[in-house]
Amino acid sequence: MLSKKCKYAIHALVYLAERYQEGPVHIQEIAEKKSIPKKFLEAILLELRNAKMLHSKKGKGGGYYLYQKPSDVNLMDVIRLMDGAIAMLPCVSLNYYEKCEECRNEKTCGIRDSFIKVRDQTLEILGGATLDKIMKREKALGAK
User: Fold this and answer.
1) For the whole model, what pTM was predicted?
2) Rounded to an integer, what distance in angstroms lies between the CA atom of residue 29 and that of residue 14?
């Protein structure tokens, strides 16, 4: 399950993607339009900036804007940044691997084998879910 922090990050990124190349967007605007607590959003945007997903500009006319094109930002990277491992079991995680305490032999574990397949499909779907595709889908379905 995604954390609230991760969901807010995704909503903020989609909002910024909708305004791609229109200049910086003030944090207050994002917070109001996406119903995200401003203090929480500040921390999220700072983390996204430190990860080179966003740039920021200080002063008058300042705010946040995407560092990359919307077609280059995918949900897999955002989820990993905000929530860590995507895999449901630590023994199948690519970036956060840990040996399972219950497992006797990883090579023959049927449970692990099943969850590797789940992980691989999940990564394929999330890796292809870019901000650009999310915006296009919302536009096609008439979302606001």
Assistant:
1) 0.89
2) 13
